[in-house]
């Protein structure tokens, strides 16, 4: 009787192993609330994975601690390919937060999704008509311009820190809980400059309530027409972009990672998907392979860690 039970258990396990991946719904986790670029890209990725893999994909928002809650959740999830994370570079939070319950080696890279710059904005009635005027004033008046920051370690915060370093200026940073409140502060006149992601500010730029002086990348972005890149705007040597990408727990089978990568590459190549991403002020940038994404991550880590150190920011 025991032999029969053992044989039945073995056959059940063998059947599970033989099942093709994926054979059940996937969970796609993001560490940001609904409404922002991270959430949009997560839902876009989920939609394309459904179409390419033929299984349901459930999006789960786990906001908090700059993405650390979601990162930790996925780091501790089973390494079976059924829990996927959409996140930015881990080096920022690992340098910024005193204690994180995960490390970069807890994850395996799948593919980058999209990359974009931030926009350098002032109020439409500001005295600054272009980037050169802003830099000239900030140099002559260190600390007198208040910068509305979207929070320590956010892409806008890091973009502004690098800007200070390249331009040789100093802002007084005012930290807000996200890009929305930061932009509202600029609109109210409580702050004078705001580095922001495109979805946060483009509506106000089009409505002539804010003026975009430049994007934070060296060259202009096709998805943000009419706004010059930093070099053309008068600050050569300044170049900052941010990205979102997919990760799975370390130890996930290579075949599952390859299938996720292939599905997303196909999805990101679709014209309608590319157009939707462009509306977020970003460009689709799928990685050539998971290994290529891993290499990009390793190459970028030292510069991001330095940015966090230069900012002086530390979150307990």
Walk me through the structure.
This protein folds into 2 domains: 25-116 and 242-311, 3-Layer(aba) Sandwich (D-Maltodextrin-Binding Protein, domain 2), CATH 3.40.190.150; 119-233, D-Maltodextrin-Binding Protein, domain 2. 44% of the residues lie in helices and 18% in strands. Helix 2 (37-53) links the parallel strand 1 and strand 2 (57-61). It starts with a helix and ends in a 5-residue tail after the last helix. Helix 2 packs across helix 10. It has helices at residues 2-18, 37-53, 68-75, 90-96, 131-140, 155-167, 179-188, 198-206, 230-233, 254-268, 271-278, 290-311, and strands spanning 26-30, 57-61, 83-87, 107-116, 119-123, 146-149, 172-175, 193-196, 210-215, 242-249, 283-284. It is of the alpha/beta class. The model is unreliable at 11-17 (pLDDT under 50). The chain contains 12 helices and 11 strands. The strands form 2 sheets. Strands 2-1-3-10-4-11 form a 6-stranded mixed β-sheet, with helices on both faces. The relative contact order is 0.18.
**What level of helicity do the residues show?**
40-55%
Please work out how many helical segments DSSP would assign: 12
Going by helix content, strand content and strand pairing, the class is alpha/beta
The strand line-up of the biggest sheet is 2-1-3-10-4-11
Biggest sheet features? 6 strands, mixed
Q: What attributes does this structure have?
A:
single chain, 316 residues, alpha/beta, D-Maltodextrin-Binding Protein, domain 2, 2 domains, 6-stranded mixed sheet, 5-stranded mixed sheet, 12 helices
